[in-house]
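Journal club prep — side note

Before the paper discussion, L.F. wants everyone to see what a predicted structure for a comparable chain looks like in token form. Sequence:
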Amino acid sequence: MDVVLLVKAAIMGVVEGLTEFLPISSTGHLILAGSLLGFDDAKAKVFDIAIQTGAIFAVILVYWAKIRSTLVALPTERQAQRFALNVFIAFVPAVVLGLLFGKAIKAHLFTPVVVASTFIIGGFIILWAERRPASATRIHSVDAMTPLDAIKVGLVQCLAMIPGTSRSGATIIGGMLLGLSRQAATDFSFFLAIPTLIGAGVYSLYKERALLSAADIPLFATGLVFSFLSAWLCVRWLLRYISTHSFVPFAYYRIVFGVIVLVTAWTGWVQWGRLIIGPCVSLPVESPLP
């Protein structure tokens, strides 16, 4: 395996891990990084989605105590059953609406103007959410969520089908607007990411299996490892950060990044046509959507 290619895979893994769970869109950053590295062919598109599995392993590790206790208690305890049901309920709309509208969205909305607009609009929505009074918060723990709360967050996650929205941004900020605390919205977004992103990764690998061979294992393994390590650091940092800070800096970052998308598309520096990739047909997750 080419050492230079492995270095590129490592860099892309770091970009994925550092941006997957922040409300800033991982795929938008992967597109920029891939363009700069010359790592943007058909196989790279599958790679971008597959390596998010590494990021998900990081979430599982960070939240292992909660996941383990839920699994152990699932047969007997109602609270564990309700939590698992809420995650499942929130996951279902992504599958259903993705199958129904994924192709149409890919055909009509994957343009630099749409991407830049949703980046910028999303930034202003974050500013709005962070300026809401504390009295608007009614849920301070994921265990206090009802199935109705879960379905609402699941529907909000489907906004990530619109390119530029960001899956984590939609679920975290959407959850806050629906009455969840910043901590509860972030926690539930992470839990919901587990079935959503694993499903997208498995689907992508299966659908594009003809592009892959055993020789690609070192490439994908490198991306997965670096995605896992960087995501583990990022998730731990974010959980500490939100305990004393707001998402306002990310809002301004999104606005600036939206302008960058417009400029790079106008100058031809980045080929944003690479946004059009298959897995968005099935699941409205972060990876196929910038």
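L.F.'s comment for the group: The chain has twelve helices and no strands. Keep this in mind when we get to the figures.
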